[in-house]
Design brief:
This protein is α/β, with parallel strands linked by helices. The protein has 14 helices and 15 strands. Strands 1-2-3-4-5-7-6 form a seven-stranded mixed sheet, sandwiched between helices. The two termini are 37 Å apart.
Length: 355
């Protein structure tokens, strides 16, 4: 793929999609060297990696530092043993603390921690305890994601007892309580599901309305293109989207044959671009200009969908702008979906519900 792209200049490099640190340090170093030989990293501003704390040691952290990794995102989810047993991921606080210590000792001290609400067997007090313990680790960022139970899509979730899943009302209560606790601890709420210390560039970008959202989540600046390299990775290009083959074997065979591993894509129309930007404004700034879509008249169908929220005062239409109240911000995905021409009707979603 690098040869197809002509060895382009890269400003951000992210290792994600599961557990990149399952790679042995030597293998990670070889892969980074291969990328360095084919892409221009001379202006690399951010170099981030997702970390499973259970798979981290000093040698691995040393390899990351040598490659210039500046940020690590640790998957924590929940720190209560009964919740961890329910999801099949045993990861005590001491293990997370050890991973944080190792990373900081090797100069990777820009840390983000991922938490989840809505997990099986998770109670309000469980999430509150987890938030308190994570805040004590003082990461620059915390992401709070809703657990998506999609056993038809993720086969490993078929082992989870669905009777332990909290109700939609309980999920909403958990998310609201965690948000309140994080803000009380000094973190700024960023968009739908991110929190950052006020001095973090993400918090500053949100204040200045420079925040953007991509497949990597919220970012301070929107790149011109995002190129995904691994199985199922999605590329965001000026012309549209492209996704690699999800099955590792099919992906590997395509790469081995010298071809691109692209399995599907979507070319953006001008209306697609307008709608994408409007939805991004809703997700990032909680206010969006309806003018490019024809104002109130052009957005009549979307506003009809949002009528119940408008009646409750959660959403307002001011001139040709749509404005979300503070109470509606956790529902910004639902608001954005009203303007998505490709959103599937309720009950036919491939992925989890928005709440």
């Amino acid at each position: 793929m690098a040869s197809e792209l002509g060895g382009g200049r890269v400003t951000e490099l992210h290792w994600g999609g599961g557990t990149p640190n399952i790679l042995e340090p030597a293998a990670f170093a070889r892969l980074f060297q291969a990328l360095s030989a084919r892409f221009d990293f001379s202006e690399l501003a951010h170099h981030a990696i997702e970390i499973d704390p259970r798979c981290l040691d000093a040698d691995t952290a040393r390899a990351y530092k040598s490659a210039g990794v500046t940020r690590a995102s640790l998957g924590v989810q929940d720190l209560n043993e009964h919740v961890q047993r329910a999801i099949g991921r045993i990861q005590p606080l001491e293990l997370v603390q050890r991973a944080v210590t190792i990373l900081r000792a090797h100069g990777v001290d820009d840390l983000s921690i991922d938490l989840m609400y809505g997990l099986p067997a998770q109670r309000l007090e469980d999430l509150a305890s987890t938030v308190q313990q994570v805040v004590a680790l003082a990461p620059a960022r915390i992401a709070l994601f809703g657990y998506a139970h999609v056993p038809w899509f993720k086969k490993r979730q078929r082992m989870i007892d669905e009777t332990l899943l909290p109700t939609a009302a309980a999920r909403f209560e958990q998310a609201a309580a965690a948000r309140t606790a994080l803000e009380a601890a000094g973190y700024s709420a960023i968009g739908l599901d991110h929190f950052a210390l006020p001095e973090d560039e993400l918090a500053i970008a949100a204040t200045e309305q420079r925040l953007r959202r991509s497949f990597q989540g919220y970012v301070a600046e929107g790149p011109g293109a995002i190129v995904g390299l691994g199985p199922s990775a999605i590329s965001t290009l000026p012309q549209g989207y492209a996704q690699n083959a999800a099955e590792p074997g099919a992906w590997a065979r395509a790469i081995a044959s010298g071809a691109l591993a692209t399995a599907r894509g979507h070319a953006l129309s001008e209306e697609d671009r307008i709608r994408r930007r409007l939805i991004e404004q809703i997700m990032c700034d909680f206010v969006a200009d309806l003018g490019p879509l024809g104002g109130r008249e052009g957005c009549a169908s979307a506003l009809e969908t949002l009528a119940p929220m408008i009646a409750l005062g959660l959403v307002r239409v001011v001139d040709d702008a749509i404005v979300l109240s503070a109470e509606a911000r956790p529902l910004c995905r639902l608001v954005g979906m009203a303007f998505d021409a490709y959103a599937r009707p309720e009950g036919r979603q491939r992925h989890a519900a928005a709440i």
